[in-house]
Amino acid sequence: MTRPHSIAEMQAVDQLFVTQASLRRGLEYQPDTSDIFISPYAKCGTTWMQQIVHGLRTGGSMDFDEITQVVPWLELAWDMGADVNAPQVATPRAFKSHLGWDDIPKGGRYITVLRDPLDAMISLFNFLDGWRFEAGSISLADFADYYLDRAESNNYWTHAASWWRQRMRPEVLLLSFEGLKKNLPGTVARVADFMGVADNPDLREIATRQAGFDFMKTHGTQFDDHLLRAARDEACGLLPGGTATKVATGKIGAGKPLISADIRASFDARWQEVMTAEFGLSSYQALLSALDQHNHAGR
């Protein structure tokens, strides 16, 4: 076993990450109307939202080894030895996913967090560096090219567009990573209302505090995907002992000075091709403004 040293080698590992059997079982799941699906794109706030939802439904329980143990990953559950139909530790049932609207099982309730695509790409690069590829072996520029060229069914822009089209559905709650950073208590309150959680100030304060950066950083091993690595690294041919962190700097835009003008231009062009062409959103900032207006109008 080894760790990939190139984009091509990493892509070969990616093909082994989730089995077709596990994906099929996830896609075949029949939701209850109260089920909560947390389905942002990778590194757009999924773990953060898992912690918020679980805190609200349990009163702040931290009785888990790693968050995926209590909020299972729909697509990977079977591969991780979990049954999506099994009872969960609390209600409503909650699942993590990275599926777009077109693929995710219908009939439940859905929370998606959007994030600046450059920030999401840099965060994913840092997350995979030293786990899914040998630390320092792939440059940020090469990773950015890979990110831009991901398959139509698995890229940031297709995912974002699929959820943006559903923003008027009452069973869909769209939020932003930047909004969580700016107003975490307000976001927790919005999620609580969406989940139908009683308006209990103490409960919401606990969920907010335990979703704070300092708390999650202190409890980092409960959010580091070590159960996922234990379940899938050998199957993917990866060396054991890889590291990954989901609670990084807590800052927005921290890595952008590392991004070249060419990469920025490529990301802008992709945004124009997808989000501007269909929705008239000239930039991610324009999306944030439209999302803010939408969420305020929905109050």
Automatic annotation (TrEMBL):
The keyword RNA-binding is annotated on this UniProt entry: no
Single GO term (MF): sulfotransferase activity
Protein keywords: Transferase
Family: Belongs to the sulfotransferase 1 family.
PANTHER family tied to this protein: SULFOTRANSFERASE SULT (PTHR11783)
Segments forming domain Sulfotransferase: 34-228
SUPFAM superfamilies: P-loop containing nucleoside triphosphate hydrolases (SSF52540)
Protein name per its UniProtKB record: Sulfotransferase domain protein
One of the Pfam families matching this protein, by short name: Sulfotransfer_1
InterPro entries: P-loop_NTPase, Sulfotransferase_dom
Residues spanning the membrane: none
Domain of life: Bacteria
